[in-house]
């Protein structure tokens, strides 16, 4: 089902809704072949070496799956019979462990846990018939994590090459209340068009994720750099390292080639927050990410914060939802809009927030709106361009952008 010598494997990298185009661009730039956008995912082709490279380098991927088989099933019994016919013994052996995750969007298949159990039963029964015994299930750290996705009656069985979600970089040691997901943070920075030239501001930094991801991009540090050393309660940072045909020398060669491209950032990065506790958490995470030389932190209310001379690139993840009442959000947004106009000329400002009436209280017309999701919450990612002098003199290089 999965052979070491295969040079043209098909992969599916999953991501968050709204980040598909960003991930597609990342994969294409990295060298993935025949990349195609899907819903919350991108499919592409490559060999096992490219699997290692993409696992280490992709900033907006959540998991990388290798599809093994696609088929149609008309019910639970039909699903079991078709799965039992698949040669799982060519994928792993009796000494390996496995686990199954199932996700169904179907009128026929309605219970994910029951579906996962049917997959386990089919695998166990096939091995018993062949060898008289079966491999063990390990839900926490299996050698092979299988993923069954069902849409109506179309079933796609894949093996998960990532193991732990790729958003878990390995640098976060302290979390602010409701921290932003690392993949979403990286995706927002890429959507904003920042290229590491203008100074970057994260004025409501929380635990520092946006600032850290910006520093990693500016320094060309692969997100897998921290994860490589291992994750808590895991034997290996990536599931593919548990596979019999894992090539450690090739992995090390690819890792070293990525690390060789690390550079000194060509800009300044500022992380600030009104909460001293948040800034303390951010500083500890920044240090764990080894970017403390490039990220300047401060305890500062945004309404007293002044930018340095020159163009500024700003991304706000302001409090909303359970962290602050709706009326307070509206008042905050009005004050932010006033501050943008009075103190942040010569700046490109982006803000992520739920799509509701409070956005209008900013009092500025956004030059771009992008729909993204922060967890289950639908949000808008808005761009406000605060000019000083002519538009051409400030952003002439990106005037054709969206």
Could you explain how this protein is built, in words?
- Helices cover 31% and strands 24% of the residues.
- It contains eleven helices and 15 strands.
- It has helices spanning 20-30, 48-57, 76-84, 112-131, 182-191, 209-219, 224-227, 248-259, 276-288, 326-343, 391-395; strands at 9-14, 33-38, 41-46, 63-72, 97-105, 136-137, 144-151, 154-160, 199-202, 269-273, 295-299, 312-316, 347-354, 368-374, 377-386.
- Strands 2-3-1-4-8-7-5-6 form an eight-stranded mixed β-sheet.
- Helix 9 links the parallel strand 10 (269-273) and strand 11.
Entry keywords:
15 strands; 7-stranded mixed β-sheet; 402 residues; alpha/beta; 31% helix; elongated
Poorly predicted ranges (pLDDT <50, ≥5 residues)? 390-402
Number of helices: 11
| Overall strand count | 15
Query: How would a crystallographer describe the biggest sheet?
Result: 8 strands, mixed
Given the C-alpha coordinates, what overall shape results? elongated
Structural class: alpha/beta
Please report which band the strand proportion falls in: under 5%, 5-15%, 15-25%, 25-35%, 35-45% or over 45%: 15-25%
**Radius of gyration, rounded?**
23 Å
First-to-last CA distance: 43 Å
Read across the widest sheet, the strand sequence of neighbours is 2-3-1-4-8-7-5-6
- Approximately how much helix is present in the residues? 25-40%
Order of helices and strands: EHEEHEHEHEEEHEHHHEHEEHEEEH
Mean of the pLDDT scores?
A: 91
